[in-house]
Amino acid sequence: MFRSDTIIQPLSVKEDSSVLVTLDIGDTYSGFAYTYTKEYLEDEWTIHMNDPWVREKHMTHKTCTTLLLEPHGEMKGAKYGYEAETDFAGKFLDGCHAEYLLFRNVKQEFYKDGVNFDAMITDVNSGQEKPLCDILLALLTFFREKALERVRKRFDAITENDIFWVLSVPSAWKQETSLLYRDLAIESGIPFRRLRLVTEPEACLAYVMQFIRIKVSPDGRAKISNKISHFDARVMLLDLSGDAATLSVHRVSGDKTFKMVFQTRSHKKGSSQVNDQFLLFLSNLIGEDIIRTLKKDYIDDYMAMCDEFEMRKREIKPGTSGTELFSFKLPYQIEETFKEQYKTEYVTITQRIKEKSVYRDRVRYDGSRLHVEISVLKDLFNIVLDKIEVYIRNVLQMAPCARIASFMLVGGFSESKLVQAGIKKRFPEMEVIIPETPELAVMKGSVMLAMNHEIRPPTPVSGSYQKEKEQTIISSVCTVL
Ligand SMILES: Nc1ncnc2c1ncn2[C@@H]1O[C@H](COP(=O)(O)OP(=O)(O)OP(=O)(O)O)[C@@H](O)[C@H]1O
Ligand SMILES: [Mg+2]
């Protein structure tokens, strides 16, 4: 396998490539974006996505980062994304799921100290182990092939030699981890000479800056903000994703150059925690043991219920009246399990809610559907937002965060209007900049970074990363050309 210690080098995409493709393998969701360089040079907002990924009646720009392997870990016949989740649910229903290997949150493993080529990962269904790198390689190969397929569908004359690839890496990863990832990308079939790595926060910042330049200030004169147009302004980028909140501070000079000076990441502060809060809410309503039994004995129903909430939570908006109702169908097995387990205590779920739950006045159950006051769901979001607020306030006390007057919101969780309003309300003194489709900031920003910015080799030349006060500091400087 090819190894080298250079991660970021000056790019020359415009001269030697016709199509630029970026892969964003996220911890919870993944996808790709691409642009035809000639088209992009005419309109810098022209970045294409894959066809939407479909899950039941929902469509999304990214699919979940899930991999399902055949019994005994056979790679042949592997399923990916939503297809993997649906296929697994079907296998469970047929009672033949036990030997299959299901992998989720693979990328999280790479944040661990000392992760290397020999690291193993245990699947969440059968408890079998597989080499971690094999799983990431399979995911990279899948998304690379999907991207190729999509690009060829649009430009049939394109060959692999016309494609330039950009891979985004978390800024918190150690250099060795980023190199390992880069090597896996090469093994998946991406030629070394046509591959560049960018860090996720820098890609996001490029996206937000481009958004400001093109969408907010197309004539290039009016600035979205005086706060980031003066020399040496500092902005904080808030990447709120599935599990984590990644905060990074960037020094922006006018809107010409930016340099990341600080980054930090904290787990259990993302959109998945709203799902966890929802499960706690259901436990309070119906009984913790009922939810536990559903998960243990009827995992397909349990997963379908979680998936339904995962999509439906996106409907909740700040303007909706708190007393308006959110109706949610409960799996049939909940009713059955309830009757079985509580037959001596309660006659119906409704009776238990009335007698036992703190939500008794805000929830109604009609025998199959829960009707929940929106204010309850807003409370669930607020629990997570409160944690994010405390985290941000602590980070703002740190030296590199002095003089920050602007936040930029990106990441999937930032798509939520409740989250957007929640951050604005909690930090009224801050200017909060929210670009279009914050969920796509990494993917689209990687294209923009590669196309519009010269990414200079960082100083010191020997590495892109420096350790300082236990925080990783990226020293690359990006300049708008
Ligand atoms: N409208 C929405 N409301 C609430 N949450 C949303 C919305 N849209 C997407 N999400 C959440 O965004 C999360 C995914 O975010 P994102 O794509 O930024 O994560 P990721 O890239 O996988 O994570 P990481 O960057 O940490 O590896 C999912 O958990 C999803 O529930
Ligand atoms: Mg991401």
Global Rg = 23 Å
Helix content: 25-40%
* Unreliably modeled segments: 1-12, 455-481
The major beta sheet can be summarized as: 7 strands, mixed
- The CATH architecture of the domain at 13-197 would be 2-Layer Sandwich
> What topology, given as strand order, has the largest sheet?
21-20-14-15-16-25-22
**How much beta, percentage-wise?**
15-25%
The number of E-state strands comes to 25
The mean pLDDT is: 85
Specify the CATH class of the domain at 13-197: Alpha Beta
- Ligand inventory: adenosine-5'-triphosphate, magnesium ion
Number of helices: 14
Name of the CATH homologous superfamily of the domain at 13-197: ATPase, nucleotide binding domain
User: Which oligomeric form is depicted?
Assistant: single chain
Derived structural class? alpha+beta
**Looking at the structure, what is the overall shape?**
globular
- The CATH topology of the domain at 13-197 comes to Nucleotidyltransferase, domain 5
The N- to C-terminal Cα distance equals: 35 Å
Write structural notes for this entry.
This protein is α+β, with helices and mostly antiparallel strands and 481 residues long. Among the domains are: 13-197, Nucleotidyltransferase, domain 5 (2-Layer Sandwich), CATH 3.30.420.40; 271-380, no CATH class. It contains 14 helices and 25 strands. It has helices at 13-16, 37-42, 81-93, 132-154, 175-187, 200-216, 271-286, 288-297, 299-312, 332-341, 349-356, 374-396, 417-426, 441-452; strands at 19-25, 29-36, 48-49, 53-55, 58-60, 63-64, 67-69, 79-80, 101-103, 120-122, 129-131, 163-169, 195-199, 233-240, 245-253, 257-266, 325-329, 363-365, 369-373, 404-410, 431-433, 453-455, 465-468, 471-474, 477-480. Helix 4 (132-154) crosses helix 5 (175-187) and helix 12 (374-396) crosses helix 13. The chain starts with 12 loop residues before the first helix and ends with a strand. Mean pLDDT is 85; it is low at 1-12 and 455-481. Bound molecules: adenosine-5'-triphosphate and magnesium ion (MG).
